[in-house]
Amino acid sequence: ITLSTPTLTTDEQRPTQVRWMIFLLACGTSWLLYVHRYVWNIVGPKLQETYDFDQTTAGLVFAGFYLTYAAGQIPSGVFIDRFGPHRFLSWIIVLWSAALAGFGLTGNLWALGGLRALFGATQAGCYPALTKVTRLWFPLRSRTMIQGWVATTSGRCGGAMSPILMGTLLIGYGGLTWQTALIVLSVF
After folding, report:
1. At what angle do helices 126-137 and 17-38 cross, to 10 degrees?
2. Which of 36, 109, 138, 170 is 20 to 30 A distant from 27 in Cα terms?
3. Distance between CA 185 and CA 176 in Å, rounded?
């Protein structure tokens, strides 16, 4: 099936089954973004404990996310406009998942900082791309509601599920180390 990207010209177009599939994919993407982002609440203390990082060292590693997340907003928009949101989202999800898995595979301080920076840069474009998807697939009168479901409801549900998936299921019941649990979650 080839999905073309329509540009809505009127608010009178009826939703199609494809449009609602796009909506579900957007909700799933937002959910996954926050599952992966909030896992750092568990990984941070484990990382400090495992590699004996002090607060300053851990803070510098984690700051890489915020710097590249902020810096990545505008370039992400350019890439989204150039290549389309579906291609862009596919690539950044793969890249941020690889960066997440990398945290479970290395203990090198420079590699951890680089992976955290990559994680921030790749997650920076998610919501601009999802906003473009909403603009392309939904009429103006329903975009605010759609964005609310995608970003607020689905995203925050992912954030709420993150410690349950990582801490309770994978580490608690599954008996996995935080590194293995992180790799499993990044493939998920």
Report:
1. 170
2. 170
3. 11
Q: Which long-range contacts (CB under 8 A, 24 or more apart) does 52-58 make?
A: 53/109, 57/109
- Neighbouring CB atoms inside 10 A of 71's CB total 14
User: Can you tell me the distance from the alpha carbon of 165 to that of 185, in angstroms, rounded to the nearest whole number?
Assistant: 8
The phi, psi pair for 176, rounded to 5°, reads: -80, 155
- Nearest residue to 105 via CA among 184, 45, 34, 171: 184
Q: pTM of this prediction?
A: 0.86
Q: How far is CA 54 from the centre of its chain?
A: 27
3-class secondary-structure state, position 28: helix
Q: Which of 3, 40, 14, 2 is nearest to 138 (CA)?
A: 14
Largest interatomic CA distance in the chain? 60
Check residue 140 and report its DSSP letter: G
Using DSSP's 3-state secondary structure scheme, residue 15 falls into: coil
Query: How much helix, strand and coil, in percent to the nearest 5, is found in the chain?
Result: 80, 0, 20
Taking the C-alpha atoms of residue 4 and residue 15, their distance in angstroms, rounded to an integer, is: 15
Mean pLDDT of 173-178: 95
For residue 133 the two structure tokens come to 């998807």
Span between the terminal Cα atoms of the chain, in Å: 24
- Contact at 8 Å (CB) between 148 and 134? no
Pairwise CA distance, residues 142 & 151, whole Å: 14
